[in-house]
């Protein structure tokens, strides 16, 4: 009986030693995979996409469950315009980590680019449910705006501004939505918020002038456009400003 107990203890000891060795081996592989992934990130930052993919594949050979590598692989394929391969990489990433919102947003962008708007919206909603992030709500706002669901777009862009109250993109979209809804004073406030952040952002100045025109504040619009015109370098925007100024002159003559 005593010898059996000794044997049992020896067997258990050997098993524990094996488990410890396996654990160390796995940890070593996972660290090596992370090292390869970090090399891929650095390489991608330098625009060397094919080289980055080599590092990513090495990382995945060491750790097939490394979801970050699949996400980076998807981004690399997007840069190469390989959308089918990118989609497959993001789907694998999400299979491993369903709540990884960045991959869901990227997958939604692919669906949006390929005209699968319902699929794109589903991914953006899942991304927002997972993280309530600025990017998820802004993508939802843009998609709803493009589908002419203005009230929903406004709701989501305001959620974006709760996350980042200095986002020029979000304030601009909010202003455009208010303008389409006929809420011109609120549109003006949105564009004014942009100009507090960046006084030289000429697009916001033009949009603010349009809000003034729609609200029948013609003198304010003309003054702002005349001030903005000399600072604009983009020829198409200069022409648009001049067009608005000409219309304001005609309007004044008609009065």
The fraction of residues in strands falls at under 5%
Q: Low-confidence parts, pLDDT < 50 over ≥5 residues?
A: none
How helical, in percent, are the residues? over 70%
Q: Which CATH first-tier class of the domain at 166-255 would you pick?
A: Mainly Alpha
Total of DSSP H or I helical runs spanning 4+ residues: 13
Total E-strand runs: 0
Shape: elongated
**In whole angstroms, how far apart are the ends?**
113 Å
Q: Name the average pLDDT.
A: 92
CATH superfamily of the domain at 166-255: Tetratricopeptide repeat domain
For the biggest sheet, the summary is:
none
The helix-and-strand class reads: mainly alpha
C-alpha-based Rg, rounded: 28 Å
CATH topology of the domain at 166-255: the name is: Serine Threonine Protein Phosphatase 5, Tetratricopeptide repeat
Please trace the helix and strand order, writing H or E for each element: HHHHHHHHHHHHH
Give the CATH architecture of the domain at 166-255. Answer: Alpha Horseshoe
Task: Give a brief rundown of this model.
It is built from 13 helices and no strands. The chain has helices spanning 2-45, 49-62, 67-79, 83-96, 101-113, 117-131, 134-146, 150-163, 168-180, 184-197, 202-214, 218-228, 235-254. The termini are far apart.
Written account of the structure:
This protein is mainly α and 255 residues long. It has a domain at 166-255: Serine Threonine Protein Phosphatase 5, Tetratricopeptide repeat (Alpha Horseshoe), CATH 1.25.40. The protein is 83% helix and 0% strand. It contains 13 helices and no strands. The chain has helices at residues 2-45, 49-62, 67-79, 83-96, 101-113, 117-131, 134-146, 150-163, 168-180, 184-197, 202-214, 218-228, 235-254. The radius of gyration is 28 Å and the shape is elongated.
